Amino acid sequence: MHTVEKIGGTSMSRFEEVLDNIFIGRREGAALYQRIFVVSAYSGMTNLLLEHKKTGEPGVYQRFADAQSEGAWREALENVRQRMLEKNAELFSSEYELHAANQFINSRIDDASECMHSLQKLCAYGHFQLSEHLMKVREMLASLGEAHSAFNSVLALKQRGVNARLADLTGWQQEAPLPFEEMIASHFAGFDLSRELVVATGYTHCAEGLMNTYDRGYSEITFAQIAAATGAHEAIIHKEFHLSSADPNLVGADKVVTIGRTNYDVADQLSNLGMEAIHPRAAKTLRRAGVELRIKNAFEPEHGGTLISQDYKSEKPCVEIIAGRKDVFGIEVFDQDMLGDISHDMEISKLLKQLKLYVVNKDSDANSITYYASGSRKLINRAAKLIEEKYPAAEVTVHNLAIVSAIGSDLKVKGILAKTVAALAGAGISIQAIHQSIRQVEMQCVVNEEDYDAAIAALHRALIEPENHGDVIAAA
Fold first, then answer.
1. Cα dist. 227→235, 402, 472, 474 in Å?
2. Tens of pLDDT, residues 393-450
3. pLDDT band at 68 (very low <50, low <70, confident <90, very high)
4. If we measure between CA atoms, which residue out of 249, 235, 173, 232 comes closest to residue 205?
5. Which residue ranges does the record assign to the Aspartate/glutamate/uridylate kinase domain (predicted)?
6. Domain-ending residue, one of 240, 272, 296
7. C-alpha pair distances (Å), 180 with each of 8, 38, 166
8. Into how many domains does the chain fold?
9. Domain containing residue 450
10. Residue 320: closest CA among 412, 418, 407
């Protein structure tokens, strides 16, 4: 009857609060155990190690990949070392723990530096290409962040008298990588969860290479696989906020309600909008294993949070969440030759995937297709140009848009379309497109980018606030 719990990087950076709220709290004795924690790197560390997730500012990895000389990446790696040592000093006042924490991370960084130096030297010879080894370097660097926070967590817990144990999944100095599932199973076979609190690294080194598929979403994949492999009673993700009916910054903190229960379908819709409750592939692992997921606010430990399960449906049809994304471009392709021909859609979809543009949705009529894609303006423009080159007779237009969605575990609400249109019209917002599938878990409205904030507020007022959704609140 154990739980597997994940703590994100932003929460980990407030470690004393996390220690008091989550790791220990009011627990004593046996109540401290039967828990496995999967921790992310402290906030900002992975950006320094790889590249900034939002701005793209190069970190150690990017400087190494583009380097003409060692100095470019060595300076960045030393900056990471300094930041990690500063974090250690912030966490530990005791000389013993501080020495152990510093020795651990210095050893890891020294090993990584030597490895990268040797690889760069080897690839100076024509028979070896650096590009063939870059993904391995990326994984090695990423693992430093999780190893740092996990090792420190174990140290801090032991300092407080908790029998904590590290599950180092980074494969550091491991002779050969194991398949992902085998790597997880082998590490947890020997733990006694009744008397050991286990802290695992969010990164797992494996034969498949998690970053090849998930890049920086690997920690939730690790978390889900541990929960499935160990037969967890419940999987818990601790975030800095509750899963609520909308962004409180847009509709007002006094207007939003915490979602007490929902299902994995709703979680998937949120992921599609870039507002992940959990990575969709991680959710798939939990669903298959029959493990329920709970989303909790790390800084309100007494609150039950949101329970996500496979078969849940609200007691009556209702809208649970108003969400959306602003970073959407509509790529409209008009070509009379596409009537009755699906090849246009297949080729254009393939092109957008090659450019690594994320398609949130698409719609079509007899002679046009519009792809609602997320990505940089530069890539969107390149996509439009390549489509025009592929189909010279086509007219390609790019629109700056936003998507606003009404989401619920059972969205068969009578008159919801009429209410939605009336609410947006009443707010002076023009609907560019609207989508609702037969599965009845989401309705998407496409609006102009500048109308996004007002549209979120208008739909929350019309579809959630009047009924106050007492059934949803009660389930919390």
1. 6, 36, 27, 27
2. 999 999 999 999 999 999 999 899 999 999 999 999 999 999 988 889 999 999 999 9
3. low
4. 173
5. 3-297
6. 240
7. 21, 16, 18
8. 2
9. 321-464
10. 407
